[in-house]
Every structure is written in C-alpha cells, then in structure tokens.
Amino acid sequence: MLSTRHLMSMDDLTLEDIATILDRADTHRELNATSAAAKKHGSLRGYTIVNLFLEPSTRTRTSFEIAGKRLGADVINISGSASSIVKGESLVDTALTLDAMDTDMVVVRARAAGTPQVMRRNIRGSVVNAGDGKHEHPTQALLDLHTMRTSFGHIEGLRVAIVGDIAHSRVVGSLARVLNRMGASVVVAGPPAFMPARPDVLGVEVARSIDEALAGADVVYLLRIQLERLGSLQLLPSLREYARFWGMDERRVASLAPHTILMHPGPMNRGVEVTSEVADAVASRINDQVNSGVAVRMAVMELLLANREDLPAQPVKELLNA
Predict the structure, then answer these.
(1) Helices 170-181 & 138-152, crossing angle to 10 degrees?
(2) Binding residue per annotation — 159?
(3) Which end of the chain is more exposed for a tag (fewer CB within 10 A), N or C?
(4) Is 29 annotated as a binding residue?
(5) 138-289 fold
(6) Sign of the CA dihedral 311, 312, 316, 322?
(7) May I ask the CATH class of domain 6-136+291-307?
C-alpha cells in the first residue's frame, strides 16, 4: 500500500513508498522474464485505465499499455490528435467526460506543465503523471532508480552524473531530488544555454565540462537536446559541436571506472549525445531501463489502485498480501 492515490510528482512518495514500488517491480520483472502465463495475471481485472497521451511517446505509452494489460485491466489509449481537445474541448471537460465513464485510472502525458493536476482535481479515479512539460516524469525516475538498484544493489552512496539539456528536461526535475533524498550525490553538466538559472535548487553539483562531471561517477545519465521545447530558439551552433564537447564517445567511456553504467531516458539521438558504439556497449543499461519501465509501471498501477477503498476489486490486495 502507498500513502497516496495519485502520482503527480516524486514528492508525493515517501521513501517507504519508493521502496515498496521498487520491491514490487522486482517481482514483476522476474515474472515478466519467465513464461507468457506467469507475466500476465488478473490482479486489476475489472478496472478501466485510460492512457491520455497529448504528446508523442513510444516507450512511456507502450509500457503503460503493456503494464495495464498484463495486470488484466481494460486499457484505452487516447492520443492528442484523436481527442476532442483538438476541437476546442477544455481539459476540465475532458476529465469530467472520463470521470462520467467511471474510469479507475487516467495516465496523462502533456506538453503543458500542470495538466495532470487539472485531471486529478476533476476525476474520482487515480491519476498518474506520465510527463508534463519541463516539470516532472515520476515513473521515469522510478524506473531509473530500479535500474540503478538492480545494477548496484543500492542507491545510497552512488555518484550520478547527469549530462546534457538540464534546463528543459523533466527527467532531471524528478530524478535529481529523489536521488538526494535516497543518499546519492548528483552532478550535472551541459552547455551554458542548457543549464537552469538556479541549478542549486535541485541540490546538485555543477561541473564545467562533461569530463569534470564523469570523474568518479558510478552512473552516467545522458540527456538528449529537447528540440521540441526550444521552438525557434537556436542555442547551439551545430549538433556536431554538441557531440564534440558534450557527447559520450569511446574515449570518454575509457576514462570511466570499470563498474560505471550508462543510462539514457530515450529517445536517443545516436551520434549526438551518444555514439552508437557507446549506446550498444556492455556498460549500457538503456534497454534495461525500458525493461524496468514495464515492471515499475505495473507496480505503480497495482499499488495506487490498492488504495481505492471505494472500488470493489479485491484481488489487488490479496495479491499484494500474498
């Protein structure tokens, strides 16, 4: 059981909540790696989950859909272009419509920060933030924590270097603060144009170069340039220059400790923030992150809906107490 019915931000979760989610994700990841029968069960049979994705996505949308279906829920996908929002309907009216259909959970992804909070205020079911603007992406942070814990057995004491477009990334907004809460240290680095005005509010160190950030890192977390959030701004002379000064290549990998792992939230721009050789190297945990994403989102769905005392589906609690 969690202390919340919704997941808007990593700040909604206590450290005990996070441990519960990661432990439950361990179970799902193990089952997902076995047989088709083992990875699909009916703990959420009878529940209806709507994935409202008002912004394009591959990994997040697909993993939420797979997660819901493996748990036996009825999963409905609605894209921005297929919703009445393109006809001028307000978010409030969209939320009220979904609520009138007795949906049990709405998973929301949107370009505008605060969109999931609007849904939460106007729907009785649970709401999960699947990424809102530059604000937060809590399930991404959870799957990243799961990947790190699976690799090292712990989070506390790790040194995590986050490199790239820090200012426009919602990954940083969720991940940096929770790493601090869990006893890890975080250093960020990126071109001056891609650094926030007040990086200190994230509780992180700031490195002047990628090579400075890599020193002593246990985890190197690479971020892509968020071109879709820059509009017409031209903050770099060229992508080639970015790759030269801020990209992860074989030379920089050679400077890392043997145990260091490489991570990336996707989608990758090969040849920009990371070369193909590095993306496919043994140290890469990029595909492990995708794998953890399904298991973590299964855990989040189960545990949030287990808090819904007003709903009749008891198998969730029976499974969690097994």
Answers:
(1) 50
(2) no
(3) C
(4) no
(5) Rossmann fold (3.40.50)
(6) positive
(7) alpha beta
pTM: 0.92
Q: With the C-alpha atoms ordered 221, 222, 225, 226, is the resulting torsion angle positive or negative? A: negative
- Tokens read off for 100: 């009138």
* Peptide bond connecting 196 to the previous residue in cis, omega within 30 degrees of 0: no
User: Any known ligand binding at 198?
Assistant: no
The C-alpha angle 239, 134, 235, rounded to 5 degrees, equals: 30
250-270 pLDDT per residue, tens? 999 999 999 999 999 999 999
Please tell me whether 266 is known to bind a ligand: yes
Domain limits, the chain:
6-136+291-307, 138-289
| Residue range 129-176, pLDDT digits in tens | 999 988 999 999 999 999 999 999 999 999 999 999 998 888 898 999
267 marked as binding residue: yes
Q: What are the phi and psi torsion angles at 261 (to 5°)?
A: -110, 155
CA distance readout (Å), 81 to 60, 64, 118, 165, 218: 17, 19, 19, 28, 41
Distance CA 67, CA 296 (A): 9
Let me know: does 206 contact 198? Beta carbons within 8 Å. Answer: no
